[in-house]
Design goal:
single chain; 122 residues; mainly beta; seven-stranded mixed β-sheet; globular
C-alpha cells in the first residue's frame, strides 16, 4: 500500500487542522493506520491509530481529548482531526499502515507515507 499524507500548515494556538492519509490499494480496510509525529530535535512518536477491525482507536496521552482519528474505507482515507492545537504540537506528521495486525496500541508499521508539516504559532 502507498500512503499520501496531506493537510498540514500554519495555524495559531487554539486552532484546528485536519490531516488526511490517502491510501492506494483495494484492501485498505484490512490495514491498521497510525499517525506519528517528529517534533524538532525529538524522536518520532506515536500520536493515534485506528484498527482495521471495528475501528478501535488509540491515542497518545498528550493528544487525548484534542485529536480524533477516523477512517473512511470507501475513500481509502484516514483522518486526524486536531483541535485546540498547542505550539508543542508543531511537528512533521506521518501516517503509517500495517496489514491485519492484532488489535493493540503498539505495532510495527510496514508502510509509511511522506510527512506533512504542522506549525502552531503562539
Amino acid at each position: 500500500v502507498q500512503l499520501q499524507a496531506s493537510g498540514g500548515g500554519l495555524v495559531q494556538a487554539g486552532g484546528s487542522l485536519r490531516l488526511s492519509c490517502a491510501a492506494s490499494g483495494r484492501t485498505f480496510s484490512s490495514y491498521t493506520v497510525g499517525w506519528f509525529r517528529q517534533r524538532p530535535g525529538k524522536e518520532r512518536e506515536f500520536v493515534a491509530s485506528v484498527s482495521w477491525a471495528g475501528g478501535t482507536t488509540y491515542y497518545a496521552d498528550s493528544v487525548k481529548g484534542r485529536f480524533t482519528i477516523s477512517r473512511d474505507n470507501a475513500k481509502s482515507t484516514v483522518y486526524l482531526q486536531m483541535n485546540s492545537l498547542k505550539p508543542e504540537d508543531t511537528a512533521v506528521y506521518y501516517c503509517a499502515a500495517v496489514y491485519l495486525p492484532p488489535v493493540q496500541p503498539i505495532l510495527a508499521y510496514d508502510y509509511w507515507g511522506q510527512g506533512t508539516l504542522v506549525t502552531v504559532s503562539s
